[in-house]
What does this fold into?
Amino acid sequence: MLFLTLSYAPLFITLGGFFADEKITDSQNQNFVERSHQFPGMVLLVREFCFHELNANLLWPGTFAFAEWLVDHRSWLEGRKILELGSGTGALAIFLHKSFKLDITTSDYDDRSIEENISHNFQTNGISPAHPHLNHTWGDAFPIPDSHWDLIIASDILLYVKQYPNLIKTLSYLLKTYTPEVIDSDSPGYEQHDVLSALPRPAFLMSWRRRIGKEDESLFFVGCEKAGLEVKHLGSRVYCINLKPK
It folds into this structure.
């Protein structure tokens, strides 16, 4: 009797397209997998945790849909100082920098391994040094006293219902403490941008593609309203959240 042993490389499919050529690595006893992901107009090599207790290991399919939406609305991003919440692998921030040269700061749960992995992914994709990163656990005191970010973005961060009050607390702080950054017009790289925009300043722009119970999902939006925030659905499950007009 003849026995055959077959070996193959697994092929994964996401909304962003195909990625293959997996490479599993071990860095300081932390297992990772490197995958090529198709974003609009480019392929990014992203190192992901094989496991992370806070799901910072995964690049969710909604990230690719949000990237496409942002490409279609790129004029809304021009001249913005951006903070991303729940950056995970940093892939979306990398894509936005490489596509539009945006001023973007990443942030995620206060975990050194997440920060180091984001930095690794920036450098792997030709961005060195990596962009600024903030270690911040939602609901905790924010590490910076004043917010200069006029646009906060996030993709698929409503997974943990119990964290909604903490997320809303962080959002409220960022929106309420926002002060425009004064930039000298003689500074290198200074550009004048039209102050008119489809998005208010400051604003939180969030894409939410994952499906949870409608009652759970509504808890976040109702919580935002109770905290004095205004929620607008822009279509394609993208939401703009900002301070209610006084």
